[in-house]
Design goal:
Macrolide_Exporter_MacB; mainly alpha; 2 domains; transmembrane
Length: about 230
Amino acid sequence: MERETAAKNGWRTGESLPVKYDDGETGTLTIGATYEENDLVSTVIAPLSVLDPHDAKPYIPQIFVKMDGGESAAGEQALVDALGQNPAVKAMDKQDIRDEFGGMINMMLSIMYGLLAMALIIAVLGVVNTLAMSVFEPQQEIGMLRAIGLDRRRVKRMIRLEAVVISLFGALVGVAMGSFLGWAIGQILKDSVPGYAMVMPWDRIGIFLLLAALVGVLTAMWPARSTAKLTC
């Protein structure tokens, strides 16, 4: 039995507890040992000799095997051969189990990055639209700036700086909100995830901010060129 469950209910090793099986029959089981919380096993473990009489179709999704000499490719192959090389049975070591769980996490991250790419495209269109409105609506003001000596090069620079400010502001707001949501979700899940620790990827955040500034410069090319063509 899981140690935390036993402690929460005041149960100790050697104590007998009443149980009810899936077929409706009742009985008693003795707590033989307790173990630390483990995501790979259930809260209560009982021998198959006890459960089989009460389960017409037992379902065994996993079997844990300890090999002599520890994990090795030869031992894994011997296990596969002993099972008749059944294609329905998959032998995995600790690293394979980690890779399987990591694969699911990587798939979710790929989906998140795909959504991020879509959001980035929408953000670029939004920046272009904002700059276009700020260019074509105040044409008289821009013409006045040209009349008092602002040349085309400085007009382009002004539009580019405006685009960079808009992009960086949006990126900073997104990073702040994302970090807060990540912290809030972590606080909710940290009790159920042993060894949880929040780590901020500062290098990736810096790269994203640089990309945001680059996107601002690129999206400002067409509005800046159109603005520079305005006459007094």
